[in-house]
Protein 1
Amino acid sequence: MNSIDGKKIASGIDAEITRQLTTLERSLSFHCLLVGDDPASHLYVRRKEKMAQDLGISFTLHHLAAEATVEIITEKTRELNLLPDGYIIQLPLPTKLREKTNDLLQQIDPARDVDGLTKINRERFLNDTPGSFLPTPVAAVMALVYSLSGDDGYRYLPFYHQGSIGKVNEDLFGKQAIVISDGDVFGPTLRVALARAGMQVEVVRSDDATLVKKTERADLLVSAVGKPGSITGNMLKRGVVGIDVGTTLVNGRTKGDFDWESVSAIASAATPVPGGVGPVTVAMLYANLLYLAKRQDEG
């Protein structure tokens, strides 16, 4: 089985970002709004900070207490909307704020929406508007899928995007993709991206009574649920390609949705956790930042 090396793919994308940064006449700045003290969120923020340092991008963390109200967070987004380049709200938010997540994301200026999660930016992609870009985890999945045909992932850097998506390789073209996702953004957005790339796509919730029947049909299986070990080899058909997006911190270690031992015995290729989707997602974060910064410079 081919263990898809996300670190290698991310390294290639980072090298291309670095090359393009040299063409700018200024440095870039990235801001991260973190609410609360969730250990996993702090871990992911540190990884983003390390990558910013490696790329020579200024990184600023804005940390609010878990008790912060919607009003306080909204006021902070107003401040960040006045700064150049872009920022993110680190997710997930504390439990008491979860139901307000989408409302708070909509406070982000779309021109500074590095994660690509505002309604305006998502609709630009769904409507195939030239110059649109994908949410970072969706873009990461597409880069990983493209890597299967020897593509280095550059093809889907958002600043190369011109309103269309390249096709997947011949082994996946016209085949069945199953995306397991319980959210309202990741699954539907990835469904459109993969369909434009030439696949048949179905999004299914993790609690679907027919889940196993659907995963058994998958030529490409993408899981983004956050339930460690919930996808096992006996749920899959031999030769499937697996992309594990559902990372969870368990006792200080990052775990994926895939039961790696059983899945790797069935799959033709799959992403490990850690070292698969995560590094590529961070790379795409800074690819989006560069893209937005260039658009701001162009007016």
Protein 2
Amino acid sequence: MKNRLFVCFIAVFGLLYVLGCTRPAAVVDGKKIDMKTFDILLKEKMQEHKAQNIIPDMKQMKNAVIQELIAERLMLEEAEKLGIKISDEDMNMRIDMMKKDAGEDAFYNALREKGVSYDDFRERTKDKMAILRFMSGLVNESSITEEEIESFYKNSPVPFIKPKRVLMKIIEFPTEESAGAIVNEMKDKNIKFDVMAKKLENDPRVLTATEYGWVNPELFSSDIAQAVRNLKPGQSGGPYKGKKSFFLIKVNEIEKEGVAKIDDVRNSIRRTLFEQKKKAAVTQWVEQRKKTSKIQINIR
């Protein structure tokens, strides 16, 4: 999912630099949106529809794409007027997160496939961050009231589900061999999991030995998720393969899936309402700004 979001990010925000089209897709207050950018984003949208087995209305899709790019240009222009600036440090942190999420090789492969240079991608990342900061400034999250949250919870057409979660303790190892050696030591010397975890807290053989807290087991690798599903409270097992390391796990408590109370989902509802208000505010702002902007569209 993260990789897909990364590729979409490049398609939408990473291609405005492309030059060479004599006839722009649109001109917004004297600034061009080139046809190559439009074509690439249109192709991306078509692929999304194809993946969902949806046959789009091409006229409507073309209009949606050019309107999205126009809105982008207007918000970036306003961000510049408001003095919204993104530091190189913040930009680099964001890009480093993308590399980590996608994987270094996948990150650069995606850039090459889209024909985007790294320097241009950095500039487009900075533009995107400025736009997002401008959008966030249109609505204050503190404007979400408790009454709105309670109403959203009570009037939801389907109940909020609290997923199964477990209270775990883990010991993480760099290799399967090092994990196996500790398992053998625990068996040979009849050492309990908690005692061994305490003993290994500062041991160079392990990456970490700690209380992991409450967590949904489905968030782990398939091996760990399956193992945790099979463990009962008080039981331990391993080593289990994670993304880059190996784990010994003890399950202390289990909470079954059930209907969530409002306190369990209050923050989630707050974020949902905030995003809804922000989206509405952005739409309203863009429509108002279009009325006072000089916009020429060359898409038919």
